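new request in #modeling-help
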Amino acid sequence: MNILSLLILIPTITMIGIIISPSHKIVRLVALGGMIAQLITALVLMFSYFAIRKAGITDIMVFYQDIEWFKTLNIHYIVGVDGISVAMIMLTSVIIFAGILASWEVVYLQKEFFIFLILLATGVFGFFISLDLFTMFLFYEIAVIPMYFLIGIWGTGPKEYSAMKLTLMLMGGSALMMVGLLGLYFNSSVDGHFTFNMMEIAKVNIPGNIQMYFFPFLFVGFGILGALYPFHTWSPDGHASAPTAVSMLHAGVLMKLGGYGAFRVAMYLMPAAANSLSWIFIILATISVVYGAFAVIWQKDLKFINAYASVSHVGLITFALMVMNKTSLDGAIIQMISHGLTTALFFALIGMIYGRTHTRMIDEMGGLIKVIPFLGVAFIIAGLSTLGLPGLSGFVAEMIIFIGAFQHVDIFHRVLTILVASSIVISAVYVLRMIGKLLFGPVRNEHHLELKDAKWFEKLSAGTLIVCLVGIGVAPLWLSNLISDSLSPILSKLMQFSSLYTHIF
Amino acid sequence: MIDYTYTIWIVLIPLIMFVILGLFGSKMKPNLAGILGSAGLFTTTILSYLTAYFYFFKAEPINGAFTSITAYNVEWLKFSDSLSIHLGVLLDPISVMMLVVITTISLMVHIYSIGYMKGDSGFQRFFAFLSLFTFSMLGLVVSTDIIQMYIGFEMVGLSSYLLIGHYYEKPSAVAASNKAFIVTRFADFGFLIGILLVSFYTGTFDFNVLTNNDASVYTSMGHASFLGMSALTWGMFLIFIGGAGKSAMFPLHIWLPDAMEGPTPVSALIHAATMVVAGVYLVARMFIVYHFQAPGTLEFIAYVGAFTSLFAAIIAITQYDIKRILAFSTLSQIGYMMLALGVSGYGGEGGVGYMASMFHLFTHAMFKGLLFLGAGSIIHAIHSNDLRDMGNLRKYMPITFITFAIAVLSISGIPPFSGFWSKDEILAAAFEHNKLIYFSSVLVAGLTAFYMSRLFFTVFYGKKTDYKHEPHESSLLMTIPLMILAFAATFAGFIPFSSFVTSDGKAFESSLSLSIAIPSVIIALSGIVLAFLLYHKKSDVPDKITVSLGFLYRATLNKFYFDEIYLFVTRKIIFNLISRPIAWFDKHIIDGSMDGIAWIIETTSIKIKGLQSGQLQQYAFVFVSGTIILVLFFAYWFI
């Protein structure tokens, strides 16, 4: 059996296992066991991918498998991975593992919670391995729908409002995306047969004017998921209401679906339009980065802080994608992974702190590092990664993006790079302000003196993410190598049309 | 040929110590953590000394010049075939000298801290962070690559942040640590843009290429210009901003005085001897580029250095906090180093400023480290930082008294103490190059002697004797480092620096010029005498003078209101005029329009849902009336 299909099968079996589990304790053990199996599978996948590349196999996609499942419309179940998707799969499996641990003590409708959570992850895994646009879209919807229930049922605060808002905005995104996908489908024919197969479409040269119609649909559609300015407002409300593990998965992985899709589908399949329209999106991305960072400074709720910081950091991904050279694209993918890990760690810790103090307002807390040193230190590490400190993954990603973007021949891009790079100062301001208020100073609420530090599952959850952050931060070369080979086919398509860009400026 | 590969361990041992102490420190006995940290550092120190010995005395200079040796280099990130980031160890005269300085001071501070931090609840954490700092600083000075330097800048910034905030329960310490990090981050932003600019044109990050004698990599930069300055001048200027932030040059100096919230050994190590000279080191590292490619920037550096040194010396006169006085004096002395680089030429005798700057860096590390550790010993004894709580301490703390006296004489530039020799070289270089800077530097020399003596006489002579607990001399763990550093501060001036550390690596003869030395010694002595008259016993003359100066005095006491200006910019402008409106805009306009769309859909749906009422009569009514309208319509149209 293809190892990629295993990535769908394991979560499915886990969900069945959860349904038949007799007690609370067994439910979470089954969930954890399933996700450990998933993590191991992902590791095996990564190492076999390295082995395959080392053996000199240069296929664009490996572990390729093609099964027809709806003949009339020529829809297939096609899976295959390259370095980029392997990296994203690794990210997802680490975060879902940490997410399960972070929800160890969920009691309310526990079975349903874990089922929805794993269903969401299944959708994400499916999305990353799919090469058929229809199947990919299907998995995308599988990932988005459970979100509504997870926030609406297990959330906090104005959860119905947030759940509805998030789902509607993302559904709006899917509607745009669907139009774009159909546009691709009906222009995919060489010999009279339409296809959803991405690798086939990539060989077709879609006429430039058609690309100009459909690229905005696809890019904005995915962009909404990637919190593209000004369609980012679902993110603060959604994250603020979502339960911990959902925030982790959502900010950590689901938002990356946007960037990944924009890159893999929109830019890869419509390179001409990507080049001629990139100036619009690069400006929007620059606004996202700076605007998001400034907006954080004024926030008081920890989740809002991280949500806006995410807007800023995810904006950096879009920015790097739109610069469209090898280094910056490499940086964009690494930023997806780095931001995924960092933000998941942040949301995990915010959840753990909230579970103890029952507040997320930084004004109502203080001096916590004295009482809960493990969580405090982990929180500082997450903060340092957010502000891009060397030795943690955030620095690597930002550095690659800045260097890559600044290598651009065009002065417009270099000026924008400087603007975007100014976010390293703003992020230092908001991160240190948050850490200073939350962890340092005198303990502001005397009830907080009795708080207990992290339990084993919390330590394991945060520890896993920290190890990944440090691992990438200290030795980034392997990750960069994993990604950069796979960029070539996409890059060469983009490069063919790069002259379209220059006559605008 | 000597194999220097082992030098990587100089950097790695402190890192390993940090990891060990960071992970397991809290389970150790405090003293074990202290001894472990110090032992690790002792090994590093020995290795550094060996390296210096091999490098300066055993290696064969090529063409009479010390060459730079890449002892270790590993690819860390690769962007293209030509552009990649390397991490490694680069040995050349300045980096080897810095290894000696850093490990010496750090070892002294480690030993001292075992005594000073005794009983502190964060003892193990403190030693872990000291190791982290030492690792970062060593990694910074041995950079083979400008990005490694940037990484080092960030890492020392982090360790400085963590150590300033050691007493994290004190809000003032937290504020100070945030300020230090953010101000230097802002400067690092400039540094980063500078790196990007320079690397864009040169296509490399490698110091060996960037600072090569053959400057062909810069030729392509000649054409591009912006606002009347060439791209390279801009790049080098922005890189200097990074250095100015770390070295607390005006107007980025505001973080350093506040950084004194950290424990005193930290101030000695980070905020006096090592980290704050990182900016000077950066300029020295890229000196050849500044000198040949961006002379305008170098001129600017000279003025910034001269101004900072004067500005800080004036403020130091009026302060009452012993550590803040020392902090301002650090600013002033670093200004000296910067201006020396700024006025320096390249090669041979012309490079005397460069040599003087490095020389002063070396001697300053010794005597300023000593001053801070001495101040720590005083603070430890009487539990106060305030000069007004001190007096007559020579009776209680003889070792501190004598070592402090040596340091004061040294910083004041009295022969034969080390400060005299290096300061003399700086003045000589300034005299050659720019008279205005020279006179300002001589004035600073006088001011330095005055405020240091004011501090000295107030603390060790003066009136006060009514201590609640009788002060006593510190333990040997603290006084032995004082004695060692006092020894260094006395004799470091006799090192023939011009044979080792020069701008082009070639040794040259430098001699003491009496025409420079005599006036500066006279002015220093008069400063000391004046301070002696005013402060050696209680008198009301200083108070009268301050009253007669009025506003000028208050402005100086308040450090010329720079903190207030910065607070205005951050609080009022960034927080209230940028951040708050953006947050509002996002909530009400952007999000509001999203909610608005939802509202429109909902309202429309409510309005039209009445049509689907389910009442048969209503449907029948609509059906019949519709039919009639259509019939009438068609009848009108066709007939």
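bot summary: Residues 501-505 of chain A have pLDDT under 50 and may be disordered.
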